[in-house]
Amino acid sequence: MGAGRRALITTAITVVCAVTVLAAPGTAFASPTPTSTPTSTPSSTPSASASSTPVTNKDLEAVREKLDALYHDAAVATDAYNAAEEQSQKQSAEIVELAKKIVKGQEKLDELKDRAGAAARSQYRTNGLPDEAQLLLSDNPQAFLDGTGRILQGQRATKGLISELTRTQQDLKQYTADASAQWQQLEKNRKAKAAAKKKVTTQIAAAEKLESQLEKQEKARLAELERQAALKAQTTWLDSGVLKDIDTKASAAGKAAVAYATAALGKPYVWGAEGPSSYDCSGLTSQAWASAGDPIPRTSQEQWKQLKHIAVKDMRPGDLIIYFDDASHVAMYIGDGAIIHAPRPGRTVTVAGAGSMKILGVVRPDA
To answer: N or C, which end of the chain is more exposed by having fewer CB within 10 Å?
Structure first.
């Protein structure tokens, strides 16, 4: 593998970096400067000097670090997509409920208007005289007394009808305003989903393009570098003595969640997926705990925000370990310093060392 291959990989990293920057919102660029056209066509056969310089581990380490960055950015965008999707579903459900309230409110308003119309028609049948006037014209004392009670009841009923009409009209106005606000928010979240989806696909495509520049042997060496990096991080974490005081057993719900995650081993990572055939990282953890009877937020960032934080020394199987400063990854602790997680595109749900990535903290769904 020669200098030509090394140059190709270096160029690929540069191009991928450019694609990553281009994917960032709100960035403007000048038109590129035209490059000169070669005057001669290079030979299709690599030169002897080109084939004498192999791609070094340093080159592959640069590739590994760039891939980590690309997949990390894709994970952040996936969380944004999942959050927007969750909110869109919630708002759609709320709009449906508001629509039902509007229909019922309109039916009630129609009924109240019919009652008001009936009262008006009744007054018309008495030649337009109000009940009080009819009563004064009566020459029957008992009828007068009976009529007084009926008038008071009628007045109260009329006031009640007017108040109910007013309240119903106000409710309908509020329901309509709420529905309009929810529609606007739904549209906002749809745009957020679209933007997040574009960023996810762009980052993943850039990572796949970078990986495609590697030969089979180089991919194997890259995988070994990744394994060594994870092992080094896990060993450092274990050597800190973090596990020496951890002996807490899983709760019943925790055991059920671990069983669900274990059954998902080998299933592919697909961003935005929450089973049963594929998962992203928080799709796996949220579904595992939903199956255990304790629904939790959909995204790793909301899991970190909303669930109870637990000290590492107190964690037990079923607890969730949140990774990286931006809480962009989550895994389920299964005991003995190990986790089950959905790592990234191109990988499957797997067991890994809990300390193989930078830990932000631990949360407990059934605290």
So the answer is: C
